[in-house]
Inverse folding.
């Protein structure tokens, strides 16, 4: 079997390296950073992503370093009142991104994957197969598709973690033109992600420092979150830009996965999960020597997931009468059929690429 070079040591790259190594391939990972340092943000792993982690042999370790999520609560941010509680069925986990990266990196090292840090990539390797897991500004995506022009969505996202404990669920406080997501990460930490609409754009990427006072100010009208926002000592800010799903994912020798192929906005918590799916299915496709079929199968699914995330972005930020009507409808559905809302996403969560 041909050796594989994976570019990027994030979730997509490390999970792909592990899946490929488990199938007997020689794999090296090239990472631009000098160390595998990740910001302390949180992730929600849904059953479609967990099935990949479990099939990679990482289920017990993921359970050890994460918290379960039993529900998603949608709340009125302006009053703090619960609008609807959606119970979750299956292995939903809440985890710090650094913890997931560490689990994947340790497993990859243990199986013999070579991880090379401090490797800036300006040209593609000339030998073997190449997997581009190099994110939003992917060198491999550009080689396959040329450049594209993402556009600013008019929204920015704040990220922070603070000391504290919360119930084992994800809470979304919805307000006019903004929403705030909070959930526990374990170890006495809580993850905060706030999205606000504004004309002033911010740099794309997770490593731009934000102003904690501006973060607090953006959500000062959310009374239930006040205590946690007051604990924010540092935060990251990034502008949300919409990129198209790549027109071309592979050419027989190179392939792109994760954000390199389909950048996903954080409104359905699926970026990491879709990357895990990509990694597993790509390893299968390389074994079958059928990358075109892999691309054809993956594109419709990720496109549907991205469209669903974009709908959430609109619904969380409603104003005026539409907001009043929508919240009333959610309350009614929650009282009559509490499982109806999460069941709308069974096509997403119940899909097991490892089956």
């Amino acid at each position: 079997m041909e050796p594989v070079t994976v570019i990027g040591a994030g979730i997509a790259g490390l999970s792909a390296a592990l899946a490929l190594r488990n199938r007997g391939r020689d794999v090296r990972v090239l990472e631009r950073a000098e160390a595998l340092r990740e910001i302390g943000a949180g992730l929600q792993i849904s059953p479609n992503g967990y099935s990949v982690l479990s099939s990679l042999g990482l289920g017990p370790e993921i359970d050890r370093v994460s918290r379960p999520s039993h529900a998603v609560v949608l709340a009125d941010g302006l009053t703090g009142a619960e609008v609807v509680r959606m119970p979750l069925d299956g292995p939903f986990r809440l985890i710090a991104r650094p913890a997931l990266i560490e689990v994947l990196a340790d497993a990859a090292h243990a199986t013999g994957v070579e991880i090379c840090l401090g490797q800036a990539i300006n040209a593609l390797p000339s030998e073997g197969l190449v997997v581009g897991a190099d994110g939003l500004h992917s060198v491999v995506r550009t080689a396959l598709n040329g450049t594209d022009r993402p556009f600013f969505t008019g929204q920015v996202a704040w990220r922070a973690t603070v000391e504290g404990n919360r119930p084992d669920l994800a809470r979304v406080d919805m307000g006019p033109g903004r929403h705030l997501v909070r959930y526990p990460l374990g170890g006495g930490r809580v993850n905060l992600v706030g999205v606000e609409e504004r004309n002033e754009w911010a740099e794309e990427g997770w490593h731009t420092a934000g102003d904690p006072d501006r973060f607090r100010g953006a959500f000062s009208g959310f009374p239930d979150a006040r205590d946690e926002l007051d604990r924010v000592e540092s935060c990251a800010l990034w502008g949300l830009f919409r990129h198209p799903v790549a027109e071309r994912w592979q050419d027989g020798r190179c392939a792109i996965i994760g954000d390199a192929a389909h950048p996903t906005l954080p409104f359905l918590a699926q970026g990491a999960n879709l990357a895990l799916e990509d990694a597993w299915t790509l390893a299968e496709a390389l074994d079958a020597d059928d990358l075109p079929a892999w691309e054809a199968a993956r594109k419709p699914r990720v496109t549907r997931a991205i469209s669903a995330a974009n709908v959430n972005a609109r619904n969380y930020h409603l104003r005026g009468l539409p907001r009043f009507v929508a919240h009333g409808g959610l309350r009614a559905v929650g009282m009559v059929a509490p499982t109806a809302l999460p069941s709308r996403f069974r096509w997403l969560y119940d899909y097991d690429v490892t089956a």
Notes: The radius of gyration is 20 Å. DSSP finds twelve helices and 16 strands in the chain. The mean pLDDT is 92. The CA atoms of residues 25 and 194 lie 41 Å apart.
